[in-house]
Structure formats: structure tokens, C-alpha cells
Amino acid sequence: MRSFKSLNNLVGWLVFAIAAVTYLLTLEPTASFWDCGEFIACSYKLLVPHPPGAPTFLLLGRLMSLFSFGDVTKVAVLINALSGLSSAFTVLFLFWIITRMARKLVLREAVANSALAAEAIEPSRYQTFLILSAGVVGALAFTFSDSFWFNAVEGEVYAMSALCTAAVVWIMLKWEAHADEPDSDKWLILIAYVIGLSIGVHLLNLLTLPALGFIYYYRRTQNPTVKGGIIVMVVSMIIVGSILVGIIPGLPTLAGNFEVFFVNTVGLPFNAGLFIFLLVFAGLIYFGFRLSFQRRSQLLNTAMLCFVFILIGYSSYLIVPIRSSFKPTINENDPEDVLSFVSYLKREQYGSRPLLYGPHLFAQPDHYEEGAPRYARDPKTSTYKEILPRQQEPGYRDEDKMLLPRIYSYEPDQIANYKKWVDLQDGVKPTMGQNLAFLFRYQMGHMFWRYFMWNYVGRESDVQQAGVVTPFSPSAKSLPPRIGESPAHNNFLALPLILGLIGLFFQSRRNSKDAWVTGLLFLMTGLAIVFYLNQPPREPRERDYTFTGATFAFAIWIGLGVLGLADLFGKVVKADGLRAGLALAVGLLVPGIMAAQGWDDHDRSGRYNSVDSAKNLLNSCAPNAILFTNGDNDTFPLWYAQEVEGVRTDVRVAVLSYLNTDWYIAQMKRRSYKSAPFPISMGEKAYAQGTNDMLPYAANPAVQSVNLKEFIQLVADNNPLLQVQYQEGGLGMMSFPTPNFYLPVDTAAVKKLGIIPKDRENQLVSRMDWSMGKRAIEKKNLVILDMIATNNWQRPIYFSSTVAPSDYMNLQPYFQLEGMAYRLLPLKDPKYDPRSGEEGFVEKDITYQHLLKDFQYRGLQNPHIFYDENNLRFPANYRDKFARLSTAYLSDGNVAKAKEVADKCLELMPDNAIPYDYYSPQLVPALIAGGEKKKADELLDTMTRRSEQMLAYYATKPDASLFEDDQRGYLLSLQSVYRAAELSGDKARSEKAIGLMNQYYPR
Q1: Neighbour count for residue 971 (Cβ, 10 Å)
Q2: Which pLDDT score is estimated for 1?
């Protein structure tokens, strides 16, 4: 018979294999949306991603990418596989954690009757079966949990972060088992190293330290007390704070202070202060070790070793300034020196949220305080020059502040969303009761417990804000198909929750110490994160991926629930083998139902949507173009396509939000692959941070309109004509005297460039006129205006069609739609109507070639591939462009082309794969004109039926206000149906659509 140890290892690796196969089969084959494209690109070439970076992940990602052996199309799937394998190893460690805790429970009586520890007693065959069953059920339940599975199949940091969490808990339990051995401290040092490495992945791993502290305390203390527990908790939190504040940003900040002092005050060259700091710091470490030897203090020596190994792990961050100094193509924040590196680590660009004490949402600043000085290298003087003006921090009266400010964001959109959760009165300070109500209802209830229940009870759908499905929820058949038939509609019948609660109660009754450790791990990786994040009432995406540490901890209880079941069955079944078999069989129902329900919505193996959309957008641009985009999903897939697969590297992608920073503008002024530098005239001084960040409107009645080139020159010269005082005694700042701008156009030179379509030559203007509006001109707008003035139409300028109209700066009359992007040209469409909501003139030949010939739409025809709400947004953009092209052909009387375009759209994105959306009814006129009225009627009827079903569904939901965006989308779909029916003379369908709009439109 095999020993328990060998069986424990064997079964653990079998569970690992199940998890690994699951994740590798369901991996996305390319870069997913959100940060994945950025992280894959930065891993492949060791670039610098957004703060605070993830260098450990990037280094391992780079290692994985080497196995592509030059096939760049395999890089993404290999880095995604890194997440899959990390997740599988997490499951392996979880299995061993559960079996370790289960062994102590099963052998409790044997341990009590002997002087031996649990690990020294060999379990019987029945006990071994029971222990391993607990590990299998708990580990597999976590394998198929919603949030963890989501993280496991994409190239992001959260899967590896979970691995670090599992690893340190498992290592601590290994220390617990060997704590009496002379060299047991090696396990603590290994934990320190893993924690140091995990800093280069994600900071979530630090939250395990209190639980690890209690494992240490319980192992070293015969009779633990409440007082001792409080001390352990305080010391653990001090260690967390010391790493979070003292080591991660603290040491680089101190190094930066040394650098500024020795360069600016002593007059030493750059980096001298940094080297002096390193010498002093190394000396202090040496004396710390020396003191530990002199005093023969094992505790001090171990603490020093742990500190050093944390630093060794943390040293992965050195690749950030090293790589940044080489000016790579992705170099966010440009953290090449110690001062910019500190800003990068502190995530200063994201601002901060009040935590323990701060203003409420209606508080008005009564004064402003200067922020801390910021410095930048000045090569001319060989010193660090202070960046002026200093940042102005708002100050508030004491009566406008409160403890634990949960209701704090003053953004109008956020204020409206606060009111969905608490009854706020405009301008009235929230009460502490309202403050705590928001904490419990939204931050804890909606943003944690809802996610927890998704994982172990059931999930309603993939719609943002979706609720929980319980055994008592309406059946899927009684729900609208969008909800009930969605692959994301998962009902686990609460079986995982029930089994986990059985495990919780069983462990609490049999081993309260381990139950407290598990519970503390659950609290610190769950509700503690909620409290620290202090989230506002509206987020751009669901945040469940943050809380996999808590679902990991609960999975321990799910596994131990098998022991609880065996104990319960023991009251009616006396045979040990039968009792254990029943417990395992019932326990396996949990991962079984989770796998069956979750496979279809977690299987991304056929998705190419994100990268295809990026390639299609890049291929919409003419050679050597400049393309302005939004951030995140509009940019990261583009970075992946260019950096990894080398697609259209002649196109310069410019992220609008980043153009508000000097470091990004400096990058745009450098060559990147085949893309020439930005054609802008203003120098570094005009774009420096703190200069021209915002140009207010300062009306001058004498100026009716301003020449754009002259305006840019005035700003570059910091001309007094445009200066205004923004506060008493403060520095002057540039302004603009009129919202009306014009740009003379050399029509002869433009014609020679060959960029004007022959059928639009009569629309070429000698002067472009437009109004910017009276809102302030941001730095990003100034950069674009500078480019327009300087470029002289030499390089094509495009805006992604997904950019917010407010960033078009009212230039839409001069836009030309080419594929998925708008090109800026000195052509004015006489038919342009700003009220239509349609931007730009449709260049039919180019757009036809792109949409019907050049673009890739892999997988969008396959009804077996699941596209969640986020993935459906980009196919909707395709449909919009198909509809506009078909309408343009129809307007020209070319019915055959209009019908061809409409049919191709429906062929490439059929309703059973990509459900009809707001833009689909716009294809109806072309279908009817082409003799396909039946197809058109079916489309309109389908849209009407679905909209009615969903609006009726939301009308019955108590939390309907959370789904306002979704409801608005269905109302707009009805409006689109109404317009299409009206255009085709279909009174019955138009009247039904308008009737439903009137019925469900919020009054």
C-alpha cells in the first residue's frame, strides 16, 4: 500500500492535470480585452506598462514567449498559457493546503491520545481516502469557480497573483509541519522571497500576512490568548504597512531625496546621491547582520534574512528604469531615473481616495494647499529643477469632513449613482448612517458579496451589474432569452455555498485555530480589499477578478465540507468505506455542476475579436498615418498588434488621455519603427508638465476668430496677449480669446498630394472654419491643433470611430469615414447634419474595400462561441459602418451595392452568433430596396420582441435603476426600429415600436 505522502502527491498532480487541461483548452488564442494586450506586448519586448508595473510577470511572460520560436502569432497564447499554468499550480497548492488541514481534523483524536503531531501519524486507508477526497472536491471547486477561471485563460497578472497567495500559505503550512527542526526558518525565508517576487506581480499577496502570522503564533504558543492574538494582528499589519509603504515606495523615495540633495546642494553629478544611498543602505544591512551574530539572536538574524530576501524578490523592479532608459516604444510615465520611478511606483497619475478621514461629496474647497515639490532632470544645469507650478491640493473645512468617507466623489455621474443606493439630498452632507449604508449595501454587498455569490451560488448573466441566481430564482425558461439562454446564466443551486458552510462549521467545531486562519485569509482578501479600495458607485467594468483570494479561502471550506458530510452520514451509515464514498460522491456534485454550467461561458478558445478589431482599425488608415484613440480597449489591442505581430507599424497610435502628459508627448516626438515623429512645432517647454495643462476660455470681443497657426505660435511664445491670471498672485496661464478657429488651406498643394478623391474635389475648401466651444482646451487638444497647423496635410490624420465626439473638437464636417476610422481632410460635406449623430462623409470605395475585402472577422459567424457584453461592443461598430455604407450606396441609387453590403453584414455577423443591436435596423432600407422584405421584417420583429422582453423584465426588477444603460440601449433599439419602419412605410411596425417606447420610457 502506498504511503499517505505518495498518494497525496499523486492525487495532487492529477488534480493539477485536470486544472491545466481545462485552462489550456479554454484559453483565448490571442490577446483579450482590457490590460491583456498591453501586458502581452510588454512581456514580449520587456516594455514599460502602466504604473505600478508587473516586472515579475513580464520576465516570466518573456520567458514563455521564447517558446514561440519566432512565430509571433503564438506569443499571445503562450503568455495566456502562463496564466493557465499559474492557475493550475494554484489549484495544486490549494489541494495540499486542504489535505494538510483535513489531516489535522481527521487525526485529531489520534493526536490527542499520543505525543505525536498529525504529520507523524500515518492515516488509515479510510482516513486517507477521506482526506484526499476533501482535497479533490475543494481544489476542483476552485478550478471551476467563475472569477478564477476568468483570470486563468488570459494574459493578466491576477492568475499569477493567486499562485503567489497559494504558495505562501502552503509554504507556511510546511513550516508548521517542520517548525521544531533546526533549519525550519528556511521556509520563512522562502516566504519572504515569494512575497518580494509577488510585489512584481500584484500587491494582493501582502494580505496573506496576518493569516500567516497566526499560523506562526499558534505553532509557537501552547496557550494562545486574546491579548496575544491582538498583538499578532497588530504586528502583522505593521509588517504589511512596512512593505506597502516603507519598502515599495519608501526606499526609492529615500533614494530620490538623497539624489536631489547631493546633486542640487553638494553639486555632485547625476546618480551620485543614488550610489551614496545604496552604500549607506548596504552598510546598515551589514550592521544588522553583525548585530544578530553578536547577540546570537536567531529572531533578528531570521528577520534580517527575510528583509533581504524580500528586497531580492523586489529587485525585479530594476528592469523598469533600466528598460525605460532605452526609450522603448511603450514607456508609460518614462520612469528612467529615481524620481520618476518613485512617481511610477506611487501611481501618482491616478490620484487618491480618502480612506479613514476626508471630505464628503458635496464639500467645497475653502482653500488650496501647495503639493510637495516635484523635480525633473535639467541637463543644461546638471541639477534637478522643480516643476512649477506646484500641484494645488484642495483643502476643506473640518465640518465638511467625516470619518470613513465612503460617499466622496463629486463627479456628477457618480453623484447620480450614489443616489441609487442611499437617499441623498443635493448639497446636504451625508449622515454617518447614509455613509455606512453605502458601505454595506454597495461596497460590501454589491461589490463583494455579489461576486462571491457568482462564484458559489449562481450568476444571472454577463450584463454589467448582473445579480445572483439562487435555487429560488425564476427558472431560466421564464426569463428573457438574453438572460435565461445566455451561457453566462449559471445556476449552481447554491451547492458550493452549502458545502462550504458545512466545512466552515465542521472546522470551527473541530479546530478553531485553523478555522480562524482560514477565516482571516477570507476577510483580508475580501472585505479588507473592499474597505481599502473605497470604490465609487460606478466602475467601467466588473471587479470580481480582484477577490479570488477570498474565493480561494472559501474553497478550503468546500473541501473540508466533505469531512463534514462524512461526519453527518456517520449517524446513519456505519461502514467507513460507504460513508467516505457517499461523502465524495455528494461532494463531487459541486465541481461537477460548476464545470457543466461554467464551461460554455469561460471557453474563449475561438475568440479573435479583440485583435481582429485592432488590426482592422490599423488597416483602415493610409500609410504613415497618425491615429488618435481612447485608452484601454481602444488602444491595448493595437499595441499588441503592432508590438507583437508587427501589424502596420507605420501607423502612429496616439492615446488621447496620455497626450495630457509631457512624457507621452516626448515619446510621440521620437521615431517608432516605420512611423516618423509627430509633426508638431511647439517645443518641450510649451508641453512641460504644469505648463499649458489647461487653456481656459477668456472672451475677447475684439477677436471674432483666430488663425490656428498664429494661435499655436502665440502659445509657443507664451505671448502676453493670451495670458490670464488664474488666481490672485499666481502665475499667468495661456487662454484662448474666441472659440472660433480657422486654418487657411493651400488647395493647389493639397491636390498635388493626391489625397482628394476625384468625386469630392468640388468640396475642397480654401479655409477650414470651426468652433471649439467654450470649454477649456486640454493639453491633448493643443497637441492635435498643433499637429493640424504644422502637418500641412503631409501625413494622414485619423480619429478612431470609437472616440467620444467631445474629443473631435467639432471637426466632424471635415471627417471622411474610411473603414473604422475618420480621416481629417480639408473637404466639407455640404450634406453634413450634426443632428444626425453620424460623423463624416462615407468614402464608399475605400470603406467597401476595407469592410468587404480586407478586414478579418474570425469567429463572429460561429454561434458556439460566447461573446460577453464587452466583446459585443466592437461588432456593433462594424454593423454601424456596414449600415452607413449601405445607406450611402442607397442614397446614390446603387441598390445592388447597398443590398450586397447589407447581406454581407448579416452573413459575417449573423444574429445567432452576434445578436442584433441598435445599428442592425439601419440595414433594413437596403434589404427592402433589394427585394428582401421578409428578411427585413424578421430583423425588425426580432429587435422589437427582444427589446420588449428586456424592458418588461427590467420593469419588474427592484434594482432596475442599476441597468439604466441597458434599458436605454433597448429604447434606442426601438427607436432604430421605428425609424427603419417609417422609412419603409411599415406603419404597423413603426406604431408598435413607438408604443413600446412610450410605455417603457422613464418619466
Answers
A1: 18
A2: 61
pLDDT at 120 over 80: no
Torsion sign (Cα): 967, 970, 974, 980: positive
CA atoms within 13 A of residue 234's CA, in its CB half-sphere: 6
Euclidean distance between CA atoms 817 and 839, whole angstroms: 8
**Which DSSP helix (H) or strand (E) runs through 867?**
none
Per mean pLDDT, which range of 117-131, 196-210, 700-714 is the poorest? 117-131
Task: Specify the range with the lowest mean pLDDT, choosing from 489-493, 759-763, 837-841.
Answer: 837-841
C-alpha dist (Å) from residue 119 to 51, 90, 106, 113, 509 = 44, 22, 11, 14, 21
Give the max Cα distance, the chain: 100
At 378 the three-state DSSP class reads strand
Task: Classify 359 as helix, strand or coil.
Answer: strand
Side-chain half-sphere exposure of 748, counting CA atoms within 13 A: 0
The yes-or-no verdict on residue 841 having pLDDT over 90 is yes
From its phi and psi, is residue 725 left (phi > 0), alpha (psi between -120 and 50) or beta? beta
Q: What phi and psi values does residue 269 have, to the nearest 5 degrees?
A: -70, 170
How would you classify residue 32: left for phi > 0, otherwise alpha for psi between -120 and 50, otherwise beta? Answer: beta
711 vs 110, residue with greater confidence: 711
**SS3 state of residue 157:** coil
Cell of 12: 495532487
C-alpha span between 780 and 214 (Å, rounded): 51
Determine the residue type at 546: T
Dihedral over alpha carbons 957, 963, 969, 971 (to 10 degrees): 40
* DSSP code, position 634: G
H-run or E-run covering 254:
helix 250-260
Residues 6+ apart with CB under 8 A from 610: 30, 31, 32, 33, 36, 37, 633, 637, 871, 874
**Residue 837, by phi and psi: left (phi above 0), alpha (psi -120 to 50) or beta?**
left
Tell me which residue of 885, 888, 933 sits closest to 905, measured CA to CA: 885
Q: Tell me, yes or no, if the pTM score tops 0.85.
A: yes
- Give the SS3 label for residue 296: coil
- Give the DSSP H/E element, type plus range, for residue 741: strand 740-744
d(CA 585, CA 136): 11
Q: Are 880 and 613 a contacting pair, CB within 8 Å? A: no
Query: Residue 342 pLDDT > 70, yes or no?
Result: yes
Give the span between the Cα atoms of 223 and 737, in whole angstroms: 77
**What pLDDT is attached to residue 730?**
55
Which residues are CB-neighbours of 79 under 8 A, at least 6 positions away? Answer: 39, 40, 43, 44, 61, 64, 65, 155
Say how many C-beta atoms besides its own lie within 10 A of residue 543's C-beta. 16
* CA dist., res. 44 & res. 323, Å (int): 13
- Each domain of the chain, given as residue ranges in start order, spans 4-345+492-602, 608-839, 857-1003
CB proximity list for 236: less than 8 A, separation 6 or greater: 209, 210, 212, 213, 214
List, as one string, the DSSP characters of 470-538: -TTSPPGGGS-HHHHTSTT-EE-TTHHHHHHHHHHHHHHHH-HHHHHHHHHHHHHTTHHHHHHH---S-
Residue 863: count of CB within 10 angstroms of its CB: 10
The confidence band for 146, taking pLDDT boundaries of 50, 70 and 90, is: very high
Does the pLDDT of residue 728 top 60, yes or no?
no
Peptide bond preceding 720: is omega within 30 degrees of 0, i.e. cis? no
Q: What is the pLDDT of residues 54-72, one digit of tens each?
A: 999 999 999 999 999 999 9
Spell 585-622 as b/e; 16+ CB within 10 A means b: ebbbebbebbbebbbebbbbeebbbbbbbbbbbbbbbb
State the cell numbers at 421: 443606493
User: Residue 459 is inside which H or E element, if any?
Assistant: strand 458-459
Per-residue 3-state assignment (H helix, E strand, C coil) for 394-452 = EECCHHHEEECCCCCCCCHHHHHHHCCCCCCCCCCCCCHHHHHHHHHHHHHHHHHHHHH
